[in-house]
Amino acid sequence: MLYQSDALSVIQHEHGIAEIRFDSAGSVNKFDQCTLVSFDQALQCLQGMSELSGVIVSHNKADFMVGADITEFLPKFALPDNELSEWLIKANDIFNRLEDLNVPTITAMRGFALGGGCECALASDYRIATSSLVIGLPEVKLGIMPGFGGSVRLPRLIGADNALLWITTGKQFHAQAALAVGVLDAVVDHEHLQHAALDMLRAAIAGKLDWQARRQQKKSPLTLSAVEAGMCFATANAMVAAKAGHHYPAPITAVKAIEKAAGLARDEALMVENKHFVKLAKTNVARSLVGIFLNDQNLKQQAKKIAKQGKDVQHLAVLGAGIMGGGIAYQGASNQLTTVMKDINPGALKLGMREANKLLNKQLERGRIDGQTLGETLINIIPSLHYGSLSNADVVIEAVVEHPKVKAQVLAETEQHVSQDCVLASNTSTIPISLLSRSLTNPERFCGMHFFNPVHRMPLVEVIRGDQTSEETINTVVALASKMGKSAVVVNDCPGFFVNRVLFPYFFGFTYLIAKGVDFAQIDKVMEGQFGWPMGPAYLLDVVGIDTAHHAGEVMAQGYPTRMAKQQTDCIDIFYQAQRFGQKNGEGFYHYGRDKNGLFVKEIASSAYDLLAQHYPVDAVIEDEEIIDYLMIPMVNEVLHCLDEGIIDCPAQADIALVYGLGFPPFRGGAIAWLQHLGLVEFIAKADALSHLGSLYQVPESLRQKAIAGEIYY
């Protein structure tokens, strides 16, 4: 053993070959500060070896390197620019040390090699992997760009066009795709990886492979003519700007950095990367996206701990074969759960099976599954008209019509036909779980399990604890959500739970603007284009369904009469009475037709304007910023009320629930992250300026106290 630490070891092979083997004391290899220091010391040790002939970089764990430890490096983003820059220079010196060894080097990998792990591999002369390898530079998804030389080495290795695709999309690639573009030099079977790496290294040592030329290529300027460079980067700039938009600066910044560094040698090019990385690290976008990543990791860790204490679910049943029921059944079956889909209507069962079949065929068309998987998944869904089919169910999810009496009756009947340890869950979106539990003999085995539509796309599930729900029930349902590929947030019971409860104040803010005479299309344009929501409030109401929103609004008004009871008829009521239900019947705030693929096409509906003009003034002049205030202040205030009441545990869970459940703009990090970026004092001033609109705009006292004390949420 030439060197050993908690992060790695250096092993001596025959004929002067040394192997740096990453093997962190933790569950995965990642570039934390300890690993970087150990890597540097190991390389310095090798530099001092007179008999060194070649170096292999490898690993003991399942994955080569999952990337940098963002939890450890995030505080460095807050350093002054010059200090962050100096830290990056020192980190890059380590990778340069590997690249500058006076002997050939090769990296042997399997599993994940992401971010800093990919950049480490790029610093070696050759790369070899098994077919299990997943490699990439996903930094733009965190609002930053490669900072350990990835934007310098990758274009010189595989060409600017390919490198720009890798870096600006942040996609991960499998071994064969990496081999095809030249990131890898070979792909071998797992059992042959070590021998193949040694054979390739010996060939380089013997002069059969020109490793010096390979290395020089990565250290030299890009070989692009002026015309080629102009076309390459102009195209990349246009494509990235169109796809990423102005809310996400990292992809376009990476293009600019690669373009500026193209004519420079490695060391000068690394300084260009350094400068652009520092700029991105200081943005609120980076803070927000890193925050979401950390919140997601924390949520998954908590779910994993909770799931260990829950019952392992093998048999699932879904009551109701509508869009939601069919989607839930599909989600369970596609994750290898035997899933009964029960309904009282044979036609509904056919519709539910058709929905599952449609989703599976889309997966097949996109190459994500094969025909065998499609068939096996469909076999996992068992349509049924009888309660007897529920006898083996570990969990039954009720997804019938959103009506308290209907749901209570179905749940009570179901309880009579399931085993004593079966858990019942309701997919209700607004009805309190404690209310529904009154119909049950064993309310401790009942909770809410609120999926979001469309089920197969939306990652969030709200798990709602009723006033008598046992912890074992919560643990089992969290375990089920994880098994179904969903992120579960546990919330306490209240009307609307968390996500819908904070959504309706946002809708009420929209109705206030409409009553003021503001154009709904302008509101949508501001909230989509400027704030970043995937859909503006008018469009979202059409998609949710005006009838659904009208019903849910009544539930919210009963639950929170002080803040959410209506003082007069609003635009949702007006559209509901006119039977303009949105996409359901083609007429809402917008008119909806279908294109040749059967997808909805949204058009401005003059009839909607005519209807509104009968009740409200028209063409009110308002600033974009005021539109944002009208909608976002009520939502943030309600999130704060939920935190104060203990409906949701912490700001991190609140923010991740809004991003995953509502599509809250990820670059803003969630409602509490947005509040903090805006500034507590600034937010309070904005809310106070609109307080005449009612209690939805009056900030909780807890926020005022936090602002006075100079405290923050994160």
Automatic annotation (TrEMBL):
Organism annotation: Motilimonas cestriensis
Domain 3-hydroxyacyl-CoA dehydrogenase NAD binding intervals: 316-494
UniProt xrefs under PANTHER family: TRIFUNCTIONAL ENZYME SUBUNIT ALPHA (PTHR43612), TRIFUNCTIONAL ENZYME SUBUNIT ALPHA, MITOCHONDRIAL (PTHR43612:SF3)
Protein EC: 4.2.1.17
Annotated metabolic or biological route of this protein: Lipid metabolism; fatty acid beta-oxidation
Family statement drawn from the similarity comment of this UniProt entry: Belongs to the enoyl-CoA hydratase/isomerase family. In the N-terminal section; belongs to the enoyl-CoA hydratase/isomerase family.
Designated name of the protein: enoyl-CoA hydratase
Keyword check for Isomerase: yes
The 3-hydroxyacyl-CoA dehydrogenase C-terminal domain, residue ranges: 496-592
Matching InterPro entries: 3-OHacyl-CoA_DH_CS, 3-OHacyl-CoA_DH_NAD-bd, 3HC_DH_C, 6-PGluconate_DH-like_C_sf, ClpP/crotonase-like_dom_sf, Enoyl-CoA_hyd/isom_CS, Enoyl-CoA_hydra/iso, FA_oxidation_alpha_subunit
Enzyme class of the recorded protein, top EC level: lyase
Entry keywords, A to Z: Fatty acid metabolism, Isomerase, Lipid degradation, Lipid metabolism, Lyase, Multifunctional enzyme, NAD, Oxidoreductase
The UniProt record lists the keyword Lyase: yes
Catalytic reaction list: a (3S)-3-hydroxyacyl-CoA + NAD(+) = a 3-oxoacyl-CoA + NADH + H(+)
